[in-house]
Specification:
The complex is a heterodimer of chains A (422) and B (391). With 422 residues, chain A is an alpha+beta fold. Chain A contains 13 helices and eight strands. The chains are: A alpha+beta (422), B alpha+beta (391).
């Protein structure tokens, strides 16, 4: 990136913000201006609300927004995964219908991939979509669906051909979540929160023009969505926070944005706890006096070794990318490490709490926070790709070990599944 | 304080490539097996070339004393490549422990007298600190130095001295005023063949690392630096050694993983490559994670030692504890994944297993280093004391 290109972009966005930024504008009104100017999604193509800027120049724009505390386009939930997928595989009509309202935040999106019968084996989806010449009719069940209860649209992976091998019989749709054939129920987790939903389709309808990509190529399209999801997860896990506002600014637009964020984030208050809260271990050990326990000292040191080494490994991977080496499957190593860290952290927190580890809620240590850690860490090694799947990825793609023999490569109709299809 | 780097520079990578080529040619396992049965336990011709062609013997010694003046990052790279091939050489003893001790403790005249010889590889030196049955670190040192004719004499025993029988120059840690802990420690220089020094080559579990027991009986010794002032620098020297060793272990663990993968991809059982079984793949994936984690810890510690010496003790203990467990784990897994042949003398995995075991214990076992990490965090005064050995 040349310094002059950087300066030109900086000057231009600075001038534009100077002319247009109004902290008391309505949230949608302001984001509409961002969409029309292309400053809201500068790395998107110019014909679709963007400016076609490189990732580096986009960071320059983001820093300018952060500098004055200007609100950006909507990014919560899976909106940007939906947008990235539509930009790559969507029809012109789909882009015209959906992209703008993704950026303004007017539409909420959800992702309908996982099913009770297919978690790790996502391509084994049994939800069916049938075409009657005019529209698609959808029947089946999805699970672990974030935000389904207030979503306007869903990204749906469904089976459209039972005679094709399993990866070739899937198609990808945009489904209207606000219709009678779609029923959403909260899914309560073992830690008491209900952060996800189950979604039931009973003759739900999808318009013919809402097939994304070609018929039977749903797996390819879904891979695009998942690649963006993984990239985002790797970024978050390695501590690469999005450029945040440097100062909380006054103005009604910030209240509106905070409300929007709070709605999205409410079901995930336990998320920091699932990673094990290594940050609390040493302070709690010192404050409780349990630091004198030699067994705890050993485990605490193990935890610090593991979490530090994992962090440095992520930073090595990031540095390698910055030096032009291609992104490898380091994400899988990082995710695997995170599972080890979380489990060991839970063990250390238990040793520190002693018998108080029996207690939860207001009676529990730190007003229930420790109990929340102990009951949330099992999620880490499952969500976003189980440890077992990560180990397969590492073994096959990094270590070059052969794949297991498979039993699911013939017509999907003949593949053993978890449900009757008749 | 300079930034910690998470990426090797182009020069450092070229240095590594050059070392890898050299080591692969100089130390195939056939050579390791030949040398471990010889009396010095290393090949003087290879040592000569390491010093002359690659400047390795004086890597961390300042240029004004004939060295190359590099930091621990470069030394770590060298150790990692040596660990890959199980190089048999008095490198840790002379170029790491003795060179660092002299640089930190010796007077200007003493440095001028001895460092150029160490840097050129002519002088083999070692650091003698441990005593029979003593805990790790320098606090437990009990050997007394007696005043004699305006100088000092040493009486007592030093144990598990790395390359102690090969060294021309012995740097011996002892006490002059009978005080405990770091205070009151001094370092003395003694010629390896001085009268009154009896040296015995010890039978070792890991024949690629030479250890000796040294007995001193009223041996005249030259004090290095100030009397009773060597304690903190000795502790730092052992930390440098621990970080160097952690890098060596990372190289060995990586090699174990590579060799094991190569074998199990070819080995057929039940009509398939052993490497195709998920039970095996998952263990190898975990092994890769362990190897990457200890590389990160070892590289980070080397960077910190060069950039922020105040964090040296904590970082050294972190890296050494991490590497000790992961290297041994890698060796255990490597033998298991090889199956029966892995337990045979003729199969090479056993050589790395033995090095992993000796590295686990040398310069402090992992439990001791973990305890020390917590002591550092508690902000205790001592920088290298285990529980029970505090002043």
């Amino acid at each position: 990136m040349s310094a002059s290109a950087e300066a030109a972009v900086r000057d231009e966005v600075r001038a534009w913000l100077n002319d247009h930024w109004d902290p008391n504008a309505g949230l949608v009104e302001w984001r509409t201006k961002l969409v029309e100017s292309g400053w809201g999604a500068p790395d998107w193509p110019t014909e679709w609300h963007g400016r076609g800027l490189s990732a580096e120049l986009t960071r320059v724009v983001e820093r300018e927004f952060a500098r004055i505390g200007a609100v950006g386009v909507a990014t919560g939930g899976i909106r940007l995964l939906a947008a990235a997928t539509l930009l790559e595989h969507g029809s012109e009509a789909q882009k015209a219908q959906f992209l703008r309202r993704i950026l303004t935040g007017e539409d909420v999106w959800c992702q309908l991939f996982s099913e009770p019968g297919s978690g790790s084996d996502l391509a084994g989806a049994l939800t069916r979509a049938e075409f009657d010449g005019q529209r698609w009719t959808v029947n089946g069940q999805k699970v672990w669906t974030t935000s389904a209860h207030h979503a306007d649209w869903g990204l749906l992976l469904a089976r459209t051909d039972w005679d094709a091998p399993k990866h070739q019989g899937l198609s990808y749709f945009v489904i209207d979540m606000r219709q009678p054939g779609v029923e959403v129920q909260p899914l309560k987790q073992m830690n008491g929160y209900a952060s996800f939903n189950q979604v039931f389709f009973n003759d739900a309808e999808v318009k013919a023009e809402h097939l994304v990509g070609k018929l039977g190529q749903g797996w390819t399209v879904a891979m695009t969505t998942l690649a963006h999801e993984r990239r985002r997860a790797d970024g978050l896990r390695s501590g690469r926070a999005d450029v945040a506002s440097e100062a909380r600014q006054r103005g009604t637009i910030h209240e509106e944005e905070a409300q929007e964020t709070a709605t999205v984030m409410a079901p995930y208050k336990w998320y920091p706890q699932r990673a094990g809260r290594v940050d609390l271990a040493l302070p709690n050990a010192l404050a409780s006096g349990r630091i004198g326990n030699p067994a705890l000292r050993q485990e605490l040191a193990r935890l610090l070794i593991l979490s530090s080494s994992a962090e440095w490994t992520a930073r090595r991977a990031r540095a390698a990318q910055q030096h032009g080496q291609p992104q490898g499957p380091e994400g899988s190593l990082g995710k695997l490490a995170a599972s080890h860290v979380a489990r060991l952290a839970a063990r250390v927190h238990t040793m520190i709490a002693g018998a108080d580890a029996l207690l939860a809620g207001e009676d529990g240590p730190e007003n229930g926070l420790i109990a929340e850690i102990l009951l949330s860490v099992p999620a880490v090694s499952i969500a976003g790709g189980t440890d077992e799947i990560q180990r397969n990825i590492i073994a096959e793609r990094v270590l070059g070990m052969p794949k297991e023999p498979r039993f699911d490569q013939g017509p999907f109709r003949d593949v053993a599944t978890n449900a009757s299809r008749d | 304080m300079p930034d910690i780097q998470f990426h090797f520079t182009e020069e450092q990578r070229q240095f590594r490539d050059m070392l890898r080529r050299f080591m692969a040619a100089a130390s195939p396992t056939s050579e390791v097996r030949r040398l471990m049965d010889t009396e010095p336990g290393f090949d003087p011709a290879v040592w000569r070339r390491m010093a002359d062609e690659l400047g390795l013997a004086g890597l961390m010694i300042p240029e004004r004393y004939g060295g190359s003046g590099f930091g621990l990052v470069e030394l770590g790279l060298a150790m990692e490549e040596m660990g890959r091939v199980l190089l048999c050489a008095p490198y840790l003893a002379s170029a790491v422990l003795a060179a660092n001790a002299l640089c930190r403790i010796g007077s200007e005249a003493q440095k001028q007298r001895w460092l150029p010889g160490i840097a050129s590889g002519e002088t083999l030196a070692t650091l003698a600190f441990a005593e029979p049955g003593s805990e790790p670190g320098v606090e437990p040192i009990a050997m007394q130095a007696a005043a004699m004719d305006g100088g000092h004499s040493l009486t007592g025993c030093k144990d598990c001295v790395v390359d102690g029988c090969n060294a021309h120059l012995l740097l011996v840690a002892a006490r002059v005023e009978g005080r405990d802990g770091l205070a009151g420690l001094s370092l003395f220089a003694v010629a390896g063949d001085a009268p009154g020094v009896s040296r015995r080559r010890l039978q070792v579990l890991d024949p690629t690392r030479q250890l000796a027991r040294l007995d001193f009986e009223g041996v005249p010794a030259e004090l290095l630096g100030g009397l009773g002032e060597a304690g903190p620098a000795l502790a730092e020297t052992l930390d440098i050694g621990a970080i160097a060793l952690a890098n060596e272990m990372a190289g060995g663990a990586q090699r174990l993983l590579e060799d094991t993968l190569e074998y199990i991809k070819l080995r057929m059982q039940f009509g398939r490559a052993v490497a195709s079984f998920q039970a095996i793949k998952h263990r190898c994936a975990e092994l890769l994670l362990q190897v990457e984690l200890i590389k990160s810890a070892a590289y980070h510690a080397a960077q910190v030692a060069d950039a922020n010496p105040e964090a040296l003790a904590y970082e050294a203990s972190l890296a050494k504890a991490a590497a000790s467990e992961a290297y041994l784990h890698a060796a255990i897994e490597a033998i298991q994944l090889h199956g029966g042949i892995g337990f045979t003398w003729d199969q090479d995995t056993q050589l790395w297993y033995k090095r992993a075991k000796s590295s686990e214990v040398l310069l402090g076992d992992p439990a001791w280093h973990r305890e020390r990490m917590i002591q550092c965090l508690e902000g205790r005064e001592s920088t290298s004391a285990p529980t029970g050995a505090l002043a």
